[in-house]
Amino acid sequence: MLQHPHQLNALVHDGSATTAGTVEDPSPPGALSGRLIAIKDNIATRDSPTTAASNALTGYTSPFDATVVKLLRQHGATISAKTNLDEFGMGSHSQHSHFAPVLGPYIRNGVPLSPGGSSGGSAVAVATGQCWAALGTDTGGSVRLPAAFTGTVGFKPSYGVMSRWGVIQYANSMDTVGILARNVEDAGRVFRCLDAYDGQDPTSLSVSVRERAARRQPLARGLRIGVPIEYNIVGLAPAVRSAYTRTLGSLQDHGHSLHPVSLPTTRQALSAYYVLAPAEASSNLAKYDGTRYGFRTQGTDASPKSGLPLYARTRGEGFGEEVKRRILLGAYTLSSDAIDNYFIQAQKVRRLVQRDFDGVFTRLNPLLDSDVTMGAGVREEQGVDVLLTPTAPTLPPTVEEVKLQSSVESYMNDVFTVPASLAGLPVISVPVKLSGQGKEVVEEPDVQSVGMQLMGQFGDDQLVLQAAAILEQLDC
Amino acid sequence: MQSSTIRTAPSHFARALQCTSPGLIRCPRPCIVAKWLQSRNLTTATPAAQEAIPLRKHLKDEAKRKKADAKRDGNTASTKSGADPRLEKWELTVGIEIHAELNTACKLVSSAPAEVLETDNGGMANSRVAMFDAALPGTQPQFQVATLLPALRAAIAFGCEVQRKSGWDRKHYFHWDQPNGYQITQYYQPFAKDGCLVLDASDGVPALDMQGADRLRIGIKQIQMEQDTAKTTNVGSSTYHVDLNRAGVPLIEIITLPQIHSPQTAAAVVRKIQAVLKSVDSCVIGMELGGLRADVNVSVRERGTSGVGSSYSGVSGLGQRTEIKNLSSFKAVEDAIIAERDRQITVLEAGGVIEGETRGWTLGATETTRLRGKEGEVDYRYMPDADLPPLVIGQDLVKHLTSTLPTLPDQLQQDLQDEYNLSLKDAKTLIDLDNGDRLDFFLRTVHSVTAELSISSQAQIGKMVGNWVLHELGGLLTTHQRSWDDVRITADELRDILVCLHQKRITTRVAKQLLADLFQREPAPAARPCVEQLIETGNLRLRPLSEEEYRDLARRIMDESPEMVKAVREKGQKGKVMWFVGQMVRQGEEGTVEPEQARATIERLMGG
Predict the structure, then answer these.
(1) For the region Disordered, what residue ranges are annotated (chain B) (predicted)?
(2) Predicted interface score ipTM higher than 0.85
(3) Rg (Cα) of chain A, in Å, rounded?
């Protein structure tokens, strides 16, 4: 970690304080009193701009705080800065930003590594001590991937547990606010402040479902850890594979049991995600027309060609390439000719992915009325408490390598993270050290850890945090 | 950087929209805007009230038309289908989609008020806008359960099956009247399905459409809830003002099956749907004020064939249909269908093919105009709205609403005929006029007259009160060009007049005079003496003439007009008797001559 934090372009709008630790100002008492927390710039704050790193929202300041921001303030936290991201959360390396790319804190052969995306700014800010913790958003892995690439902890709670009011939509059926912190305990502390029903978010989990989840008995025995065989892909980098194996072994050594499980729909999950997320994006981003706020093209913005909508130029200039690519993709998969073959099929895959998960976990999905919907997931009789997989199939590429990747190659980074997003599961990425042999290969400024991802049944957020704390303590 | 690109949504967005109106009132782009508006056939102004035809006039026109038909049938004995022999060969089919603004306090998915509040400074533009209505980033919809009630009442009134579970979808298209870039609607799973509308000849359905039956049943495919759009007003040649007050106001869309086969029936369907919606309080603003809008699907096929085999709404064997959008009066519905039917027949008879397209109609036009063809159709990219949970409606709620549903127009009309002895025509007119205010006035008057006279049955005086409320008051409204809202006479005042009349304390002529007097007086209590006082001060009380006095008066008039006497006596023109009655009333002292007595006297003298 050689570069000066401020050269990494993690922060886009500074808050009142920029140094890590506590501030001198008296802040309200609370669990987060005096803590500096940075906020991904697609989460609304009323005292600084909220732009989602898009030209389309240049200069936009929200008239209200997102519920999660309001809760942070109520618990004594200081909002220190807004962090850089892939425009509207669309990207895996935080390179698609109107504010220029984020650089990861690590360097390989003189080239900075990808910080992961899309919450790369939040992850880098945490990793480099520019804040105590940060909020990100995770639609298909956008908190976990940056956590894995920066050696931080990234927690995506169950969908609906933390309010989305004030969170700029990308794919609203999967968008989840996530937490980036330097350790599991800090992430848990932030989580407990934000874990609340919010009437302003129509998808906020009802109090009764929360109570049902909370009534579950805490774990009193060793973890039953599922190892999904479908995640053992050819493209798994040796360094990642060896860290994974070593972690599994170490967990076993500590009295936890390993259980191979099968999640057969995993292979289709990535494709389904890249149909569904752009479809929702094309809808959610339709509001950026320059009429009421944000960027509008200069002069008359009417398209010179008749038959085209008025906003064609404003939108053409407001959005970056990746956003436009996904909007077009989504507009296509929703079109009357294509919807049956794409959007509808992808929804079916999504349901199968969820049923796969329901089939392997010991606990039942609290969203389902009964256990009759057991899916194709193959489990042992008892099922498992959590699933453990690597967060990403590779170590972070350099930003130069990212530039050479095609869109599809870059989407491949999300192969391990999207299934949990499709099912709305709680999932956390925890850094583990690269294996002993690796140490000799990897030079000091290069990344020193690999992200391991723990997934739990829907609503099992506490259990996932508990398992993450165990993983973090391993001396492997 | 241009200041226009740095715009901030301030905390009170609603107010801000007024202050920062330059953000909305934007720059010249005339041709595109005009074209785009035109292509969507948007009307920005509230349609003029004169477009609506009062039911009474409609019924008269209908009667005239029927008479003419009958006459022609008698003369030519060749056709039942009217003037155009082409209609013998071609059959029209119409399906209608009606958008009606629901009578609710708040918007569909935001808590902003749906209607002008008294505290609202007269309903300033952009004063009723929640953050979601303005599509601020990070805001979410919040379904307002209360909006469901008027929608459910409508569904129940049309006999629909209310779905236990329905869903919300997004219908996408870009327009500045649609801040989110999509409309929230119910495309895949509407909340109500399979209802029907029953009409009869008195609704204005031509005999041909009735096919010998008493009633005509038009199926309702579904009813869905959805958001209204913002209102755009053209200011000058190149400026548009967008008012988000209407954005998100709840509508229901009622889709009929294509089971309508004449323009008159189509208009009758729209009229009846409006009447039903009003009767159950689902919808308070009528078509004449823009509360209802209709889109019609029109196709023709050669009778006895299955057209080009087109189908929609589950009905097949039809000709290719075209859609005419945004019709805002009953007359427009009828005229647009006639014009489009005739156009299609002309095309087909010339060997042409009907294109599936969207067409427009402007009031007073004789032809529909092409707006866009199939290739220009917007692909709405319907998708489920993942932010809104499914709408689950319990049977208990449906049962409760069913049991408390106000009387439907058909039932009401029957009651008025049976219990108040009104004619069908008067019953229908009362129901239809002034948003039910006239009916209300009628009922209050009847009940208070009944109580005052201690009579047991409303039937005894219903007809009389009906005459006064509809015809006498109606006449005054026309003469003074006033609307019902400006009527100052109260039901109690009318009661006092009618009670005096019924008890023969005043003549009919005096009663009318009193009504006209009170009609014109200021509403302030000081300006309105009671009826009794008016009679006293005007010396209007009926002072019955003796038989002798009647005879003297009659003789005098007969002596003055020997020609008229001759007409009655020798030519047998009995109608002229009433002329004498009129003369007697006029020439006799005010408030003394009763027409019945006068008539009896004249007839006796003439006969003698």
Answers:
(1) 60-84
(2) yes
(3) 21
